[in-house]
Design goal:
heterodimer, A: 312 residues, mainly alpha, 0% strand, globular, B: 506 residues, alpha+beta, twelve-stranded mixed beta sheet, four-stranded antiparallel beta sheet, 30% helix
């Protein structure tokens, strides 16, 4: 177990370092920096040079890179060049919106995906099965933002049931969950389709397993068999769920744009446009940590669900 | 992003929209109307007026801070925190007499605040993008509690315009001394005090009951950041917003036909141009550049790409008192353009590189129209879409990687703001180089006699017309829309700041 944990930790560090280096180089390879953009069309060349100095962008890439890695090791993400405040407070401002949206989307995709998958798998060829197959194909074939626009057009513009705009001006609150429902459904549609497909396949596989035949021959029927099938099939969905949970954080970028939500997606797009390197780097660190963390959690959960894996 | 398909403008939809509007108006009416909600497309980068050059920052900051002098609705500079001022001997100083006002943190405005504010602006550590406008100041001193003198190294007729602009905001000295974070927690003497700011969402402001010019009539102002004009309009129609700052030209009819909405059109301070890179050999001949001006129907470009406006013939907004009558827009005359190109020996072998800034859809559309007009006279141009940061660093600045680029230059209260640097190749992006223009500009920056100054700038603008480092497009109308029952809201001429001080619902 110690060996396993050490391996995981090492691979986390390496992943983080590689991704951060890519982001560091990629951002600086883009023409223009925060001083040029903040200076706009009015600042003179001298003014921009002075701003660059103040922002700590005047040194060579090597010096900046060393300084940046050192800060990350110390747990310091630096200050936003545009907002002139710590990146951690920028992230803490934005994270709740994205987390609320992602968790709502996750719950919806879980309920919808598992429900449809189970029902479809238990009665292959039935109405629900045929609907699930159609739904899964359509949901995966069409881009996410298309559903977003469709939902806005139907429910916000035409029916007026939902506000067109992201959040109320007061920010995140319980009332805001109403605002978050359409974007969450948009995010959940393709994800629930994947969950449904996998769940259906796993259930179908279990149906053919020996223990089901044995149980049936011993007189276990209907609900009883279904319970056995479900408890054996569901752990197989966990790795996919972990992938999706990790992917939701980046998946929100497009959907936040469509719905005008002030979350991490809007932050990273704004930060790239403004060449606010520390913020882009900070969001990246967060994304890597969440992604790796969630996958790790899924591994552990799978161990808990499936005793056979523990000896391995 | 083009989302017009979301809003098909059928008759049925219009009827439906007015039903929604009536219901919404019924729900919104009454006491809750004390909150004024505005939607704006851009958003501030910071609310510290000394470290930004973004119009959006000053548009919001206007309600939080005050300046020594300010611009009234006719564009004149009038007293504000300075009840009066005197110009000293040889125009080498300004003395300001302050009004009685208090900051939102309860401290009283005094001369020390003005001194600390201007000193911070001049401090290289602040690295303000506007610092060069303060270059003529040698020192700022408090003569007594309510009197401040600004000493100058040379006459600076543009200084009042600087002090009236958003970056001239006066900050409390106590908080300046303690290194307060004005960018995220602004404190001023303005008509509204800061409540909260969630980026990409909203700024909330509360009326300042102690405002030195009298408390505002609305109790709260909420400014929401809504980049999409279709969403802005939707919010205006449902009553979610009372003012929107972006109106797509396609939506003008819809707003004008709605009795509950008001469309407000006034001239902006913008000078729209297609800059020509005069460093490029094929654009070095002024006759070629004049020919390109003759080839473009600027009125049509203004009407289609910018929703209407007035053509200009030099690098100054239409209607500016600095534009001499002798400088008129180039006529649209493709025949003359072809003749002039032939005279200059244009053989059509060069394809011009037209760099257009993303995400400015109207500049991109204007560029496409100009491309068509140029093709008519035998000049080929290829369009290249450039992201804004890249545009600033490589097209506008840096290596000036373009033959033609379309952009709007924002309004300035004083001509130096617009023309500074346009006589020397290295300090302007079309690379216009003219020693006489450079000298006139230097003289103009310190000339205190209004008539003599006007003549200097008239010379400059005449030269910029003849030398044609730009295809001059024009000054577009500035359009915003508001609920018909909202009165007294206005947008500052040239500076485009939002003024909620006299806004009220009727």
């Amino acid at each position: 177990m110690t060996r396993y944990l050490l391996g995981q930790a090492l691979s986390f560090v390496v992943t983080l370092w590689v991704v951060l280096t890519l982001v560091f180089v990629g951002m600086r390879a883009l023409p223009g920096d925060a001083a040029t953009i903040l200076g706009g069309m009015d600042a003179s060349a001298e003014q921009i040079a002075a701003m660059r100095e103040r922002m700590g962008l005047a040194g060579s890439w090597g010096v900046q890179y060393a300084g940046f890695l050192g800060d990350v090791v110390r747990g310091d993400l630096g200050d936003s060049l545009r907002e002139r405040r710590p990146v951690t407070s920028v992230l803490l401002d934005r994270l709740p919106v994205t987390l609320a949206l992602a968790s709502l989307a996750f719950v919806i995709s879980l309920v919808l995906g598992l429900g449809l998958g189970l029902l479809a798998g238990l009665r292959p060829g039935g109405v629900i099965d045929r609907f699930t197959t159609f739904y899964a194909t359509a949901a995966l074939a069409l881009p996410e933002f298309w559903f977003g626009f469709l939902l806005i057009l139907l429910f916000a513009v035409n029916l007026g049931w939902f506000p067109v705009l992201g959040l109320p001006p007061t920010g995140l609150s319980w009332q805001a969950s109403w605002h978050l429902l359409l974007p969450a459904v948009t995010l959940a549609i393709p994800r629930s389709a994947q969950v449904a497909r996998l769940t259906r396949a796993l259930v179908l596989e279990q149906r053919r397993a020996d223990y089901v035949r044995t149980a049936r021959s011993k007189g276990v029927t209907g609900r009883g068999v279904a319970r056995h099938i479900a408890s054996n099939a569901l752990p197989g969905v966990l790795p996919l769920l972990a992938l999706e949970l990790g992917g939701l954080l980046t998946g929100t970028i497009v959907v936040e744009q469509v719905f005008g939500l002030p979350g991490l997606g809007a932050t990273i797009l704004g930060a790239i446009a403004a060449r606010d390197y520390p913020v882009v780097q900070g969001v990246t660190v967060l994304a890597v940590v969440v992604y790796v963390g969630v996958n790790w959690l899924a591994d552990l959960l799978q161990l808990a669900f499936d005793p056979r894996l523990r000896t391995a | 992003m083009e989302k017009a398909w979301l809003y098909p403008r059928s008759r049925a939809r219009r009827v439906w929209r007015s039903v929604v509007l009536i219901v919404a108006a019924a729900l919104v009416g009454g006491a809750s109307a004390q909150t004024l909600t505005m939607a704006m497309a851009a958003q501030p980068d910071t609310l510290d007026p000394q470290v930004t050059s973004a119009t959006a920052a000053f548009q919001v900051a206007k309600s939080i801070y005050d300046t020594l002098v300010e611009v009234d609705q006719s564009g004149e500079i009038v007293p504000a925190l300075a009840a009066s001022y005197e110009v000293g001997a040889d125009s080498l100083s300004y003395t300001f007499h302050l009004v009685e006002a208090t900051f939102h943190d309860g401290t009283t405005l005094d001369a020390a605040d003005v001194v600390a504010t201007i000193d911070r602006m001049r401090d290289p550590a602040t690295a303000s993008p506007k610092a060069s406008e303060y270059a003529a100041i040698t020192s700022v001193e408090a003569l007594d509690d309510r009197t401040v003198r600004v000493n100058l190294s040379q006459p600076a007729p543009a200084l009042l315009a600087t002090l009236a602009s958003g970056w001239g905001a006066i900050l409390p000295s106590e908080k300046l001394a303690s290194g307060h974070d004005f960018g995220n927690q602004p404190v001023g003497t303005g008509p509204f005090s800061f409540v909260s700011w969630q980026r990409d969402n909203a700024v909330r402001l509360a009326a300042n009951p102690d405002y030195y010019k009298g408390a505002p009539q609305v109790s709260e102002v909420v400014i929401r950041f809504v980049p999409d004009s279709a969403v802005q309009l939707q919010g205006l129609m449902t009553g979610e917003f009372h003012v929107i700052d972006t109106v797509a030209s396609a939506d003008v009819d819809l707003i004008e036909s709605n009795p509950n909405l008001e469309l407000v059109r006034d001239p902006s301070g913008l000078a729209l141009v297609a800059a020509l890179n005069t460093r490029r050999p094929h654009l070095a001949d002024p006759r070629v550049r004049q020919a390109l001006n003759l080839a473009v129907d600027s009125q049509t470009v203004l009407d289609i790409a910018y929703g209407g406006g007035t053509p200009i013939g030099a690098f100054m907004e239409a209607g500016s008192p600095w534009l001499p009558d002798s400088v008129q827009p180039f006529p649209y005359d493709p025949e003359a353009a072809r003749a002039l190109l032939a005279e200059a020996g244009w053989d059509g072998s060069v394809t011009l590189d037209m760099a257009l800034p993303q995400p400015y859809e109207n500049h991109i559309q204007a560029g496409q129209m100009i491309q068509d007009y140029l093709r008519e006279v035998g000049v080929n141009a290829e369009i290249r879409i450039v992201e804004w940061g890249v545009w600033l660093s490589d097209v506008y600045g840096g290596v000036h990687d373009f033959d033609i680029t379309v952009i709007g230059h924002t309004g300035k209260l004083d001509p130096t703001g617009r023309l500074d640097g346009y006589g020397t190749e290295a300090t302007n992006y079309p690379g216009f180089d003219d020693a006489e223009v450079a000298q006139w500009l230097l003289d103009g920056a310190k000339e205190t006699d209004v008539e003599a100054r006007r003549e200097l700038y008239a010379n400059v603008l005449t030269r910029l017309h003849d030398g044609a480092p730009f295809i001059y497009i024009g000054t577009p109308n500035r359009t915003h829309a508001r609920a018909a029952n909202l009165q007294g809201f206005w947008i500052t001429p040239m500076l485009d700041s939002f003024d909620f001080r006299t806004a009220r619902f009727e």
